[in-house]
Design brief:
CATH superfamily of the largest domain: P-loop containing nucleotide triphosphate hydrolases
Radius of gyration: 26 Å
Shape: globular
Oligomer: single chain
Structural class: alpha+beta
Distance between the termini: 57 Å
Helix content: 10-25%
CATH topology of the largest domain: Rossmann fold
Strand content: 25-35%
Number of domains: 2
Number of strands: 21
Length: 453
């Protein structure tokens, strides 16, 4: 077993080995007392974590995905030191701040200001440190007008803002966040992620639980999935989010190119292949090289692809060009509420655009047994130059259950004139110009040239 000195030498911030947490369940409080006095087991166990190994290096951002009850919050609480483990070993190197449950440790009858002091003291800050930072905390939370009101009068979003602002005021070496960013409004979420990025730039370590796969792929270096208290998979964030979708949405279909379903295949046994990142390798056949395919099998996708205005299947397209995304679905049973669509993802797996008949028409469509449906989306390709992937498929509109989904079923490359940020997602073909404002009354007079991006 490595000690704390070894962790510092290797640059490891968190190491957990063989973590196990089991809760004792007694039929009644009397059984617990009898067991304590007389011995003998009068309880059953519910295992929340079962032999979990985890290692985070300094400056690393790791995401955790998992269904409700998978053990995510239990793992974070043990690492944060707010919950005792049953077995195993955990070592943490650095100052830890954990945002586990909104409002945890905040007294509902205390004012926002009083709770900042109480929260800061619980985080190990001195009163002088809190005095120096309290205005910064209030301004970050954007609650100055109500900071003297009781915490219980705040909305859920306001409580989230104050909790987060107080937690980050200590400049932690390690930050643990459990879904806390999903409550605030979009503007506050953007502010929080900007702060997290600054924290990351300072080489702090972040452990982030989120059900939002876009957050995981955009922000995390790698990710892992917890399932039934065990590490189901870990690795590249994009690959792990694909596996997570596979785990969530039922029996996987074949990952082979023939598109047939393999009824005996389980989610755990689904083969996953990382698609090539060089768009020049993309070909007409590559649209069938799906990373993961899953669904109930009530209908089957028999063809899909990206096509130009002439109907030719393509894998390279210029910015601004007209194109069509297309898929052909064969219904094997009557399906009254089909929702079919396409979603474009970037290299990291972040969804940059998507459309379904539900989002476009506001309704599902019926499919009869034996019927073949052609689903298309005609678009103007305004994405910036890069490589992209398309996930496509059909689901039940009412329940969301996936019928046949293909992750990264189409790979294509967008080429363009350039002249914009290399990090741009879209190309608006701007006409950029700088001219002297003093000469504007006499007509345009460019002083630095102009260009079309």
């Amino acid at each position: 077993m490595n000690d704390v000195a070894d962790i510092r030498d290797t640059g490891v911030a968190i190491r957990a080995e063989g973590l196990r947490k089991a809760y004792r369940i007694y039929p009644s409080p009397l059984d617990q007392m009898i067991e304590a006095l007389r011995g003998g087991m009068r309880h059953t166990e519910r295992v929340a974590l079962d032999g979990v190994d985890l290692e985070l290096k300094r400056g690393e951002v790791v995401g955790i995905l998992g269904r409700n009850g998978a053990g995510k919050s239990t793992l974070l609480k043990i690492i944060a030191g707010t919950l005792e483990k049953t077995a195993g070993h955990v070592e943490v190197n650095g100052r830890v701040t954990a945002i586990l449950e909104l409002g945890t440790g905040f007294h509902p009858d205390y004012t926002g200001r009083e709770n900042i002091y109480m929260g800061g003291l619980c985080l190990g800050m001195s009163r002088a440190e809190i005095d120096a930072k309290i205005d910064e905390v209030i301004d970050f939370a954007e609650l100055r007008e109500v900071i003297g009101d009781p915490f219980k009068t705040y909305s859920t979003g306001m409580q989230a803002r104050l909790t987060f602002a107080t937690a980050i005021s200590v400049d932690p070496d390690i930050l643990i966040v459990d879904e806390a960013l999903s409550v605030g409004d979009a503007r506050f979420q953007m502010k929080c992620f900007s702060w997290l990025q600054r924290l990351r730039d300072k080489n702090s370590t972040i452990l982030l639980v989120s059900h939002d796969t876009n957050t995981i792929t955009t922000f995390c270096d790698r990710a892992l999935i917890l399932e039934d208290g065990k590490v189901f998979a870990e690795g590249d964030a994009k690959r792990i989010t694909v596996l997570y979708h596979n785990l969530l949405f039922g029996r996987p279909l074949s990952t082979n190119n023939d598109g047939g379903a393999e009824n005996g295949e389980s989610a755990e046994g689904a083969e996953v292949e990382v698609a090539p990142t060089d768009a020049d390798e993309a070909s007409a056949e590559s649209s069938y090289q799906a990373t993961v395919r899953y669904g109930t099998g009530e209908a089957e996708l028999v063809d899909w692809g990206l096509f130009d205005e002439t109907g030719r299947r393509i894998s390279v397209i210029e910015t601004g060009a007209k194109c069509r995304f297309s898929m052909t679905l064969l219904c094997k049973t009557d399906i009254p509420d089909l929702s079919c669509g396409f979603a474009i993802k970037d290299r990291k797996g972040t969804v940059v655009w998507g459309v379904t008949n539900s989002s476009y028409f506001g309704a599902g469509v019926p499919g009869a047994a034996g019927e073949t449906l052609l689903i298309t989306a005609d678009c103007a390709m305004w994405l910036a130059e890069s490589v992209y992937f398309v996930t496509l498929g059909a689901a039940h509109r009412e329940s969301g259950d996936k019928i046949d989904f293909v992750e990264d079923g189409i790979q294509f490359k967008v080429t363009g004139p350039g002249g914009i940020f290399t990090t741009s997602v879209v190309n608006l073909e701007a006409i950029f110009n700088i001219e002297s404002a003093s000469k504007a009354l006499n007509g345009p007079a460019a002083v630095a040239g102009s260009s079309t991006a």
